Structure formats: C-alpha cells, structure tokens
C-alpha cells in the first residue's frame, strides 16, 4: 500500500510507530499493525479523561486473542466504551462497501478523516489497501486543498458532513463529476446532500452505523431511504432498530470485557420498508453526535453539576442546519450564580480534550422534575 503525505509531498514508509502522535503517524502505525496482524488500541489521546481511562487498564487484560483493533467510543451512556474488531469484521465490511461502489472509476483515495476511529480505518485507510490504490492525506485539510484534490479524475474522497457543508458554502463552482464522495460520522441532511450534488455535479454516499455495529446501511445524495448493506439483516422492536451482521463487534470493554449479544439493539427509531430498507425517524433524545462522536447529555449534565454553585442542569439538543456543526447543546442552568461560557469551555477541554462542543447557555432557569426525580423540563 502507498500512502502519499500531501504536506511533505512524499510517500510514507509503512513502519511501527508505537508513540504515534500525528494523524499520518497513526495511519502508518495502524496499517503496519494490520499488515502484520498485531493487535493495537486506537483512540483519541488528546482527550485527557479517555487517555487516563485507557491507561488504567492492564495491557495484558485488554489484549484479546483473535482481535485486530480496540476502538473507543463514548457509547450510549456517555462512559468510555471499548469496541473490539476482528480482521474478519473489518474485511467483510469493506467487501460490502466495495459492492456498492463503481471501483473501475477509483484510481486514488483522498481521506480527510482521522485514523483512530472505525470509519477512518475501514473507509479512510483499508479500503484503498483492499483496492490497491494510493491513499493521499494530510494533517489538516483546508477546503480549497480538498477541492484541488477532488478535481483530479477518478478520486474517491473519504470525508465527513462537516466538509460537505463547508464545500456547499464556498464560491467554488467547478464540476467534480469525475470524483465520488463518501461521508459518515453524523447525519447529512437532505438539503445539504442535494445542494452538494447539484452544485458540484458529483455524488456523495452516506454510511449509517456506529463503532459497535459497523456499517449498517447507505444512501446516495438526497435519498430519504437507507439501504442495508448486503450482509446486514434488519430487525425492529417497538420501532427501535436491531441488526444481525458479521461487522458487529464480538466484544466490548467497559469496566470489564463482555460478549455482544445479537441482535444488536440500537437507539435509532426507524420505519422498516421491506427486508433491506428503512427510513430513519430519529435518534435517542439524550445522545448528541458531535464531530463523529456520540456524547451523552447526561454525562455533560453531571460534569456541570459538579460545580458547587450549580443546582441542576438540563440539556436539550438542537439541530442547526445553517451551521457547519450538526448539533448544538442548549444548556439550561438552575443556579443563583451565572454559568460563564469561559468556565464551561474549560470544563469541556478538561473532559473532552480538543473536541469542540457547540453550546448555548440559558441561566437562571428552574428545572422541573417528575415525581420520581426525572428532569422533564424547565421554566
């Protein structure tokens, strides 16, 4: 596999880099581990709380036979959750993705995504490995740099909704008809997908899934209906999506390692159409997906409520289709003292590192609770 570093204009040698700290180094090290069947833990070391959490585990304990990578996600509870993936999990997912692509038109891959998450590793790195084409990447892409790369014929761009939305906002009008885009990590709304397709005369394939499930389904451009990948079987219970799939993590790690039961129950509300298609109605109300990561509003409420002058906090999630960030946290605070944005930013940096959480603060509110103490609103 050839990795071209756009920043240095040179090819990277595949080699072990145990203390990898940059995006390129993490990619090189991950590929080395994959090619040599070496187990590795991949996570965002810029998040202090996550780094501390992972380092508290005994390496011998978390190293599981037959596993290729251990990824970390906040999970649906907001607590760090380790997700094991085997080579078979990863390779079968890539095989299914290839089946919905016109690979005859892919001669190079450009990836804007980090290589510490499942999407970045599978689509961003190992897809090009499987196809036998060069992977071009850099530490940080400016929009104009991405456009320049996408203009090159037969390019597959692996990116996120953030970049698609940013491309829509540029004055650039050149056609990107000879390139194809894949996006994941967060929803891309109907209008943004339509605008992108019409403006650049190109197509974007959206992947729906999670670290635990792997890829579940896909849709192209402004389609409303998701199509399950070939190896995925859909189930529902009370309109909540469940799946059987060879991509699902066999084990997870919280305070201990446990096997994953099937069907895997998601927190996504869907309307299934036939055997392989569904419409996504909505996500669980207390989970925000920001920069590709699931963040529990309950976790954030608890962090803020640890401040001694805060009586209670209730967080609502607002989608802002005009902003580059998909979801904004509306934070309602019950306290005689005003919660300052500066204090909140410092808290977020402490707990989430470089992850940017968009928010608005509403001070001096009264949090309304139910008879069992559940927060149900504000006044």
UniProtKB/TrEMBL annotation:
Keyword terms of this UniProt record: Ligase
Limits of the AMP-dependent synthetase/ligase domain: 56-233
InterPro entries: AMP-dep_synth/lig_dom (IPR000873), ANL_N_sf (IPR042099)
GO MF term list: CoA-ligase activity
Family per record: Belongs to the ATP-dependent AMP-binding enzyme family.
Entries under PANTHER family matching the protein: AMP-BINDING DOMAIN-CONTAINING PROTEIN-RELATED, LONG-CHAIN-FATTY-ACID--COA LIGASE
Protein name, per record: Acyl--CoA ligase
Annotated source species: Sulfurimonas lithotrophica
Upper classification of the organism: Bacteria, Pseudomonadati, Campylobacterota, Epsilonproteobacteria, Campylobacterales
């Amino acid at each position: 596999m050839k990795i071209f570093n756009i920043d240095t204009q040179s090819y990277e040698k595949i080699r072990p880099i145990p203390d990898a700290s940059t995006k390129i180094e993490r990619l090189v090290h991950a590929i080395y581990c994959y090619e040599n069947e070496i187990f590795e833990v991949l996570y965002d070391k810029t998040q202090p709380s996550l780094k501390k959490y992972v380092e508290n585990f005994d390496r011998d304990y978390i190293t599981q036979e037959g596993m290729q990578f251990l990824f970390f996600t906040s999970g649906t509870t907001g607590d760090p959750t380790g997700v094991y993936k085997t080579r078979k999990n990863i390779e079968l997912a890539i095989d299914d993705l290839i089946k919905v692509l016109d690979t005859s038109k892919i001669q190079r891959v450009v990836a804007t995504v980090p290589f510490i998450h499942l999407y970045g590793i599978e689509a961003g790195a190992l897809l090009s490995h499987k196809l036998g084409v060069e992977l071009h990447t850099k530490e940080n892409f400016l929009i104009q740099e991405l456009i320049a790369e996408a203009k090159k014929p037969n390019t597959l761009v692996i990116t996120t909704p953030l970049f698609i939305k940013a491309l829509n906002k540029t004055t650039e009008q050149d056609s990107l008809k000879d390139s194809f885009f894949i996006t994941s990590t967060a929803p891309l709304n109907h209008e943004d997908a339509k605008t992108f397709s019409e403006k650049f005369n190109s197509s974007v394939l959206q992947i729906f899934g999670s670290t635990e499930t792997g890829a579940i389904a896909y849709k192209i451009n402004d389609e409303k209906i998701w199509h399950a990948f070939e190896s995925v079987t859909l189930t529902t219970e009370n309109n909540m999506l469940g799946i059987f799939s060879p991509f699902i993590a066999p084990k997870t790690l919280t305070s201990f390692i446990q096997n994953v039961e099937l069907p895997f129950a998601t927190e996504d509300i869907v309307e299934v159409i036939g055997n392989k298609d569904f419409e996504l109605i909505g996500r669980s109300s207390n989970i925000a997906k920001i920069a590709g990561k699931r963040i529990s509003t309950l976790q954030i409420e608890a962090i803020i409520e640890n401040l001694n002058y805060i009586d209670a906090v209730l967080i609502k999630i607002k989608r802002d289709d005009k902003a580059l960030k998909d979801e904004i946290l509306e934070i309602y605070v019950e306290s005689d003292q005003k919660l300052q944005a500066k204090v909140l930013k410092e808290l977020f940096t402490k707990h989430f590192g470089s992850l940017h959480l968009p928010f608005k603060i509403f001070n001096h509110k009264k949090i309304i609770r139910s008879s069992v103490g559940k927060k149900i609103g504000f006044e």
